[in-house]
UniProtKB/TrEMBL annotation, chain A:
Region (Disordered), start-end ranges: 605-657
Domain Clathrin/coatomer adaptor adaptin-like N-terminal: 13-535
Compartments in which it is found: Endomembrane system
Protein name as catalogued: AP complex subunit beta
Source organism phylogeny: Eukaryota, Fungi, Dikarya, Ascomycota, Saccharomycotina
Organism: Pichia sorbitophila (strain ATCC MYA-4447 / BCRC 22081 / CBS 7064 / NBRC 10061 / NRRL Y-12695)
From TrEMBL, chain B:
Coiled coil: none
Domain of life where this protein originates: Eukaryota
Segments of skewed composition (Acidic residues): 184-193
The name this protein goes by in its record: Piso0_000884 protein
Gene3D superfamilies: 3.30.450.60, Mu homology domain, subdomain B
The keyword Disulfide bond is assigned to this record: no
Length: 697, 696
């Protein structure tokens, strides 16, 4: 009998008739089962009309057959909330089941009743759960434990008041190991999701007992225990060390989640030992290799591991050691894996291994996979910024690649070069010339913006620049906003540096911007540049051409750096305690993603070590995002009184203060962003679909 | 871990905008304001907004996280949660659940077909049911509900051990081809317990038979599970309760086999990459698995000795291991004992003291040979300054075998303190351990080496492919099912597809095996059933006629581009696929017709189409080999002894060991069911510019 046939929407009246017919036969059980299957299939089909059958289904519970009863319970869980009055009648059955001699039935009754969020059912389950928690049968006790956490969802106060949580806590001393792990799972649920009403603190004795139980429970139990051990705050370094030693063998478990949880626990206890990497010299290698070993698993697991590797590289470089070679991509990795691996390669690159890294990246850059090639080129640029000694090498490779004239490579190289040139001004002019040779294949907004920025920057040093500029400007009105901004600022720069060639161009652009563009921001900007140029004091100071305007617009760019590889240490600390959770994938502060998540932090203890994170981290990152501050370049007072009649102008008044920063640094903030890992992480997060929108890079 | 709901979806062709997923079965675990069906719609929407390369297995949308894996046949296993769950647990659980479903749905189906007398239906159903598909899930909704309930309670994982679950869930499988009326069904349920008993024993039998056809002499052991499950449902259920909660929660009590056997099947998958241009090995790694099938009565304790003294190194070296030196030496002695014994007792299969006997004479001799080789390897590593991943700080020995992961039945703490593998095995099949070994830069010749060379004759418009095969393993061994795939890059080499069926267009000659050309992937396939070791040069030649005009245009630059995956730069560097499409659009309708029928010298469009569908052109620069090398472990790992003792029953046991080294193509086999590891490996040769020669 194929159940596929049952997946057809039926009417409740039909099914009712079928039930009646079934009971006319001598042995109705089999028929009833099939009818119930049909009902359940209809639930899957989202056929809510099935709720009309409540009474009939409850009637079926009298049949002494476990399968039928299970299916009835399933039905009840789905529909009891819709028809609470009719469902109420089912309680009499559960009242009978709870004393049944079959443990399965007892467990079933508590499971079902506690799953139904109707007051009568919850009342009833509160009356029976206490007794079932002390049932003679372990299976029932286990079900009861989970029912407590289920009840907590419905009525947390009452769970606390009736001391149910406490009695679950007592079960940590149960003779049966699997009950212990169930109780732990329940308590950890209450702890993490109880919205602060319930806090679990393990005392030393319990924690030690749990650790010694590790080998007795099944794999999932081990994972729960390891997860919960971080609720224990060791008071001495010795305690913490002994925990680490007990946990280390778990790194060889077959179940990856046990491995990851043990890593988390080891990292946690590592906080309470002075220089754990010196006390247990192999620790960092073992942690590293156990993570790496997980890379032979399927891509989903790999991805997860790689995200956690990023986290550990950022936070605990000294405690976990990795070999960059193990993160080289396989040609058949899915793109999201390659992407993450590339990120790790970049993070791990240093003076010692950079040659190997570069060779590998060069291979990626020639790969057929366009997305990968682009990312590899971006990595080159970032490496050039990160490690100064290899920047020549990186740039040479980029130049080499550009010379092939493959469009997507040129596009990416342009974006990258813009950053590099900001870091090392004037050093790599030859690459810019190479790029300009292939300027025809640049058509994406990002790359265009970068190229136009380069044009403005190199206005004096490139001969036929006006022609190229003309080409890119000609389409001004159709360009996306960010390109328009860059065209405006670059055209002005161009004019200031090469007045004779630039004048017609800048006039054209400003005219378009002020007269034909509908966007008020662009228009504002156009007016502002226009008036900067045409201001009375622009070139009168000492007869020099546009000297004060130059001061404003041609100011040197803020230097970008990659010093801020780290996220805020406090966030990292919390993420460390969330290894293996969703937060470790998103790499975001836990509370921003999960509003109700409990904040985890290292418990205070005399043994707690304050580990030094790169102290420059925070300052460097603020530097990058702040505007150029020197007051001379900030002549707000110069154009206090606008005389241009503009309807939208007042509306946008508040923008003006930051306007000048916007025009240069709004664009220049972009490169700074790209170079900074922090933001890359954020970008990644968006690629991990956190924001559910398209990643524009 | 605490998930809101778990669903199994079917979503074919998710690229198409109008195709939506179908919920096959789902279970809500926790209260959530939103119906899980609505959540699935949101998942779909979120999935579709992402471009394919952004689709990580974790999708976040509107406060809800979706964690999913793809199964075969477009099945998705989806876990939904709104909390910061232990995502590793979740994803592993999904994998395990998938494996469980395979166990439950597929094995039983095999049983069903066995029960059927009709051989024809037998074949048919086995073919169609190797994978789980939409129908098999729908057919067994009740069974899957049970699994949902037993594996997870309140979104918290309970157990994923299919053997334990099987003790518990006695629902029989709903098979697709049966046409039973209600009455039959009825009879079934009455006799269900008997049924399940029979089912069990014959299932074991069937599994055994499956096992036996890979080389191990099976003794058709008839399992007789003298289980508590026999009498009543109630007690049956309490048996699982007892198993699930005892400290040995992976083995039920009361198992009895008339003949006690344990099989160790050590499989090593090679990941190998060779750069033919630079003539270097780029990657040479082994992923090893020890699959164990255990048919032992009672509660046996097994001890296994491995020749890897380095086991202890990976496990821990934070303590000075002076003490542990003596047991190691001891075990080494034992090893030699065992070897001597087996060679002297050649004919006898097994000795009473429990030392392992290799299945045949050749193997035992070979094993000593291998050990010698193994020593050599070590010498190499020590002299070369290369450090493998795990280097112990104590002593100078380099750990070759790293990252060993053990099954939960092995007590890891005693393993660490005593340094030996000791365990109470679960019943039936399981994976005892997995390990990795990096043989990179060991100056060891690759097991199988191929050197392909392509010669393009411009004037006669011909492509000649010469492939030289050499093997470097011992002569005694035989490599089986060797398949070598040589790519013929269609962007470089203009094959005349329109006349490919004519005689003389393609000619193949091989010293051994047979050669074919696969048109859709543009590959030459050289398949050899069996090849001996120490072969120095086995040759294969192929000659393919080319398009004359295009052939003349091939230049060295083109070769260079093709090797570096650069698409002809004249076309702006876009992908060839889009080019093909563009050119196809240009074609007039008349030409289209011509090409459809293959007349007027137009190339047959279907061939071009097929060609353009083949997505990743980088495949055209990679030659692959797949093979099976029985009775060799490439890493040199050997099981030196197996000792099984059962305090109460005190029986003698028949241990069997099998080694094999493999390179497997991407397809799942029954091994994959036991683990969540990737069950394929790559044995690659990357073509270089020097592989091509142009002759005018």
């Amino acid at each position: 009998m194929s159940d596929g046939k049952l997946f057809v929407k039926s009417k409740s009246s039909e099914i009712r008739a079928e039930i009646e017919r079934a009971f006319k036969k001598s042995k109705p059980h089999a028929r009833v089962k099939i009818i119930l299957k049909k009902i359940l299939s209809n639930i899957m089909l989202n056929n809510n009309e099935m709720c009309n059958l409540m009474e009939d289904v409850i009637d079926l519970m009298r049949i002494d057959d476990l399968d039928i009863r299970k299916m009835c319970c399933h039905y009840l869980i789905v529909f009891a909330r819709v028809k609470p009055k009719e469902a109420f009648r089912a309680l009499q059955f559960f009242n009978r089941f709870r004393d049944d001699r079959n443990p399965i039935l007892r467990a079933l009754s508590i499971k079902t009743v506690s799953s139904i969020g109707v007051p009568e059912f919850i009342d009833f389950s509160f009356t029976i759960v206490g007794k079932l928690l002390h049932d003679s049968d372990a299976y029932v006790r286990k079900a009861a434990v989970f029912s407590v956490s289920r009840l907590y969802q419905h009525d947390p106060k009452r769970v606390i008041n009736e001391k149910l949580a406490a009695s679950v806590g007592d079960m940590l001393r149960d003779s049966n190991d699997s009950i212990i792990s169930a109780a732990l799972a329940c308590l950890s649920y209450l702890h993490e999701h109880g919205e602060g009403k319930f806090t679990l603190v393990l005392d030393r004795a319990t924690a030690f007992k749990l650790a010694s139980d590790l080998s007795k429970v099944n794999e999932w139990g081990q994972a729960y225990i390891l997860n919960l051990l971080i609720c224990f705050t060791p008071q001495t370094g010795e305690d913490a060390l002994s925990f680490i030693e007990t946990i280390i063998p778990c790194l060889q478990h077959q179940n990856s989640s046990v491995i990851l949880n043990s890593i988390k626990a080891i990292i946690y206890f590592g906080n309470y030992v002075k220089n754990p990497e010196l006390v247990i010299p192999t620790l960092s290698k073992r942690l590293g290799s156990s993570l790496v070993s997980l890379l032979s698993k399927p891509p989903e697991i790999q991805f997860l591991v790689l995200r956690n590797v990023i986290l550990l590289i950022l936070s605990r470089k000294e405690l976990v050691s990795f070999d960059v070679k193990t993160f080289f991509c396989n040609y058949n990795d899915p793109i999201y894996i390659k992407d993450t691996k590339l990120e790790i390669i970049y993070l791990l690159a240093n003076e010692n291994n950079v040659n190997v890294v570069l060779r590998e990246l060069e291979e990626y850059a020639t790969e057929i996979d366009i997305a990968m090639a682009r990312k590899a080129i971006r990595a080159f640029g970032n490496l050039a910024i990160k490690i100064e000694s290899v920047s020549d090498q990186c740039i040479e490779i980029i130049c080499d690649l550009v010379s092939n004239g493959i469009s997507y490579i040129v596009r990416e190289a342009t974006i990258v070069m813009k950053n590099v040139i900001r870091k090392y001004p004037r050093r790599y002019d030859y690459v810019v010339k190479e790029i300009l040779k292939h300027h025809k294949c640049i058509d994406e907004p990002d790359a265009k913006a970068a190229l136009i920025w380069l044009l403005g920057y190199y206005a004096q040093r490139i001969d036929n620049i006006d022609k190229i500029f003309d080409e890119f400007v000609s389409n001004f009105k159709e360009e996306p906003l960010e390109v328009q901004y860059v065209i405006l600022s670059s055209a002005t720069k161009f004019y200031l540096q090469v007045p004779d060639k630039g004048e017609p161009l800048v006039l054209k652009v400003l005219k378009w911007a002020t007269e034909e563009v509908d966007n008020p921001d662009v228009r504002d900007r156009g007016f502002m540049y226009w008036r900067l140029i045409s201001h009375v004091e622009a070139n009168t100071a000492n007869g020099e051409f546009q000297s004060s305007t130059k001061k404003i617009i041609l100011d040197s760019n803020p230097i970008i750096s990659t010093e801020n590889d780290s996220i805020d240490p406090a966030i990292l600390e919390e993420l460390d305690l969330n290894i293996g959770t969703l937060a470790s994938i998103y790499l975001k502060p836990v509370q921003t993603v999960f509003r109700f998540a409990r904040k985890k932090s290292l418990g205070e203890s005399p043994a707690l070590q304050s580990h030094s994170l790169p102290s420059t981290a925070t300052t460097a990152s603020t530097d990058n995002f702040s505007m150029p501050k020197s007051s001379s370049t900030y002549p707000v007072s110069d154009y206090e009184s606008p005389k241009i009649p503009d309807d939208n102008h007042k509306f946008h008044d508040h923008n003006r203060d930051s306007l000048i920063n916007d025009m240069d640094s709004a664009f220049e903030k972009e490169p700074a962003k790209m170079a900074s890992t922090k933001d890359k992480l954020v970008k990644k997060i968006s690629s991990a679909a956190l924001l559910g929108r398209k990643n524009k890079h | 871990m605490s998930i809101i709901a778990l669903c199994i979806l079917h979503w074919p062709e998710n690229e198409l905008a109008y195709q939506s997923s179908e919920l096959l079965i789902g279970r809500d675990y926790q209260f959530c304001p939103k119906n899980s069906i609505d959540l699935i719609y949101e998942f779909e929407a979120a999935f579709k907004t992402l471009s394919p390369d952004e689709r990580t297995p974790f999708i976040y949308s509107k406060g809800i996280s979706y964690i999913y894996i793809w199964g075969d046949n477009d099945i998705i296993f989806l876990a939904i949660t709104n909390r910061n769950v232990q995502v590793m647990q979740t994803i592993i659980f999904l994998k395990h659940f998938y494996l469980i479903l395979m166990e439950f749905l597929i094995d039983q189906e095999a049983f069903v077909t066995k029960g059927e007398e009709n051989a024809k239906s037998n074949d048919h159903s086995r073919k169609s049911n190797i994978m789980i598909d939409k129908d098999s899930i729908k057919d067994n909704s009740c069974l899957i509900y049970e699994l949902f309930d037993e594996c997870i309670d309140f979104g918290i994982i309970q157990t994923t051990d299919y053997k334990i679950l099987r003790e518990f869930i006695k629902l029989h499988l709903n098979k697709p081809e049966a046409t039973k009326s209600y009455e039959d069904e009825n009879d079934y349920s009455d006799s269900s317990e008997e049924f399940s008993k029979v089912e069990k024993s014959s299932k074991k039998k069937s599994r055994k038979q499956k096992f036996s056809h890979d080389d191990i002499r099976s003794t058709k052991n008839k399992a007789n599970t003298k289980d508590v499950t026999s009498s009543e449902i109630i007690e049956m259920n309490s048996s699982i309760v007892r198993t699930g909660i005892s400290s040995i929660n992976w083995r039920p009590k009361g198992i009895f086999y008339p003949k006690n056997e344990i099989y160790l099947d050590i499989v090593e998958l090679i990941d190998f990459e060779f750069d033919l241009e630079r003539n270097i090995i780029k990657k040479n790694e082994i992923r090893g698995f020890c699959f164990t099938s255990c048919y032992l009565s009672g509660m046996p304790v097994c001890r296994i000795g491995l020749n890897e003294e380095k086991l202890s190194i990976t496990s821990s070296s934070h303590e000075p291991y002076n003490e542990s030196v003596s047991p190691e030496i001891e075990s080494d002695e034992k090893e030699y004992d065992a070897k001597d014994d087996t060679s002297s007792y050649d004919q006898s299969e097994q000795r009473d003291d429990g030392f392992v006997s290799a299945p045949n004479v050749a193997d035992s001799k070979k094993s000593s040979e291998d050990n010698n080789k193994h020593v050599n390897i070590e010498g190499d590593t020590e002299t070369s300054h290369y450090n493998t991943k795990v280097v112990s700080s104590v002593g100078q020995s380099t750990a070759k075998i790293a990252n060993i992961h053990y099954h939960q039945c092995i007590d890891l703490t005693t393993l660490n303190t005593e340094g030996r593998v000791c365990f109470i095995p679960p019943d039936d099949k399981f994976m005892l351990m997995s390990y990795q070994a990096d043989l990179f830069k060991q100056k060891k010749k690759p097991l199988i080496m191929i050197i392909p060379s392509y010669r393009i004759h411009k004037d006669s418009a011909k492509l000649q492919v010469l492939c030289v095969l050499s093997t470097s393993f011992t002569k005694r061994l035989r490599c089986k099912n060797l398949v070598i795939r040589l790519p013929v890059n269609p962007y470089l080499i203009p094959i005349r597809y329109n006349s490919i069926h004519k005689d003389g267009e393609m000619r193949f000659k091989a010293e051994i095996g047979s050669v074919t050309f696969k048109i859709d992937t543009s590959e030459l396939i050289w398949s050899i059933e069996e090849v001996h070791g120490k072969e120095t040069s086995l040759k294969m030649m192929a000659e393919i006629a080319l398009d004359k005009e295009k052939c003349l245009g091939v230049t060295d630059q083109d070769v260079n581009d093709a090797v570096h995956n650069k698409i002809p730069s004249s076309q702006g560097g876009d992908t060839p696929i889009s080019n093909a499409k563009n050119s196809a659009e240009v074609q007039s309708s008349e030409m289209e017709l011509d090409s459809f029928y293959g007349v007027s010298d137009a190339p047959i469009s279907s061939a071009t189409q097929i060609k353009s569908q083949y997505k990743n052109p980088s495949h055209y620069n990679i030659a692959r080999a797949t093979f099976l090398l029985p009775s060799l472990s490439y890493s040199g790992l050997k099981v030196t002894y197996i000792d099984v003792s059962e305090p109460q029953l005190n029986y003698s046991c028949f241990p069997w060991i099998k080694y094999s080294t493999e390179s497997k193509p991407h397809s799942s086999t029954d091994n994959s069911r036991l683990s969540d590891d990737n069950s394929f490996s790559d044995y690659l040769f990357k073509l270089g510019v020097s592989s091509y020669t142009l002759v005018s």
